[in-house]
Amino acid sequence: MPTACLNQTHCRVHLTGERLEVYGRNEASEKEELLREIPLRDLDRLITSENVHFTSPALGEILRRGIPIHFFSWNGRFLGNFLPSQNHHGLSRIRQYQRTLDPAFALQMAGRMVTAKLYNQRRVLQRLWASRSEDAEGEADPCPADSLPNPASGHGQSEMESTLKWLDALFASIRVSTTIDELRGYEGAATARYFRAWAGFLPETFPFERRSTRPPQNPVNACISFGSTLLYNEAVAFAHAHGLDPALGLLHTTEDGRWSLALDLIEAFRPVLVEALALDLFSRQMLNGSHFEEKKGGVYLNEDGRRKFFLQYERRMERQFMSEAVGHRTTLRQQLEQQAVMLKASLEEPGKFEPFLMN
Questions:
Q1: What's the predicted TM-score (pTM) here?
Q2: Which CATH number covers residue 319?
Q3: Which backbone phi and psi does 259 adopt, to 5 degrees?
Q4: Looking at beta carbons, which pairs linking 221-224 to residues 24 or more positions away fall under 8 Å?
Q5: CATH number of domain containing 40
Q6: Same domain for 34 and 170?
């Protein structure tokens, strides 16, 4: 159980021996009772809503074991992490501050991040279009072809070929970019074109015209936003764990109020995990209209919807696959952590950072 998700409202978490006991209201019996026991030895992280209550002994033992807790609001917004004490990376932080202010280093790293994201967007579209069945030979993959929907009838081959060709042509422009603003422009244009093609694979009952956030305006955007938030908070925790300041962005401008480096680290994972997962949830009817609610001008996953999303998100993050890039079996979660490890190493040797590439 690498991750435990406490999604039910008004639960109470107690420490008993070497396990957490979760108490709450049983919906069937309508009585307060023990809902779940979680052995701490099996736990790597906790994801919880803001109205779950932890006792002080439980929080203390969670910290002692180095387990982060990620807190979310009722609408899935990331509120923050409860992290173990980590105060032994002072020299690494100084080096990171110096490198972040180095225009040549920032441009080099940002260029690799944009290239990887564009590569993965193009690869996802290729596999969606092909829906290749030959991959279903027992070899697990973070975005398996046999889990992808068939191409929508309205999405023509000539249109897809045009999109793939257009995306492919951007690589040359990215390679010769001289400013990060140029890279951001190419990334924005590529993502807009990618989403237009990607939307053609959604069921007609869940249309997607454009990306909308704060608040999301439809169920598809709600899923993309929620998945991105889960990924983002994991990147924040991994950055902290490996001595990086997650607020210091390279591709994303460093600003108060956000963890810009975490946004940088997840860019390459968005097409492979977040958008592929959203497609799978809708095309396989794992989510329907009953899993969403309208609140405060937006559309959000409700408690049951978040429960289903958590489960599928966790399965994808922990699914093992053979990575052609690293040459061994791995998981998306391991690769996300490895991004923080490599970025830290690149502070001394820029060539050490290699963004995640989909097979």
A1: 0.82
A2: 1.20.120.920
A3: -95, 90
A4: 221/299, 222/76, 222/292, 222/298, 222/299, 222/300, 222/301, 223/277, 223/278, 223/281, 223/282, 223/287, 223/301, 223/309, 224/274, 224/275, 224/278
A5: 3.100.10.20
A6: no
pLDDT 10s digit of each residue in the chain, 359 long? 578 888 787 889 999 999 999 998 877 777 888 988 999 988 988 888 888 999 999 999 998 888 888 888 876 777 878 877 766 778 889 999 999 999 999 999 999 999 999 999 999 999 988 873 344 344 455 555 444 444 444 456 788 889 999 999 999 999 999 999 999 999 999 999 999 999 999 999 998 988 988 889 999 999 999 999 999 989 998 998 899 999 999 999 999 989 999 999 999 999 999 999 999 999 999 999 999 999 888 999 998 999 899 999 999 999 999 888 778 899 999 999 999 999 999 999 999 999 999 98
Q: How many domains does the chain have?
A: 2
| Domain coverage including residue 313 | 90-352
Tell me, yes or no, whether 122 lies in a domain.
yes
Looking at the structure, do residues 50 and 105 belong to the same domain, yes or no?
no
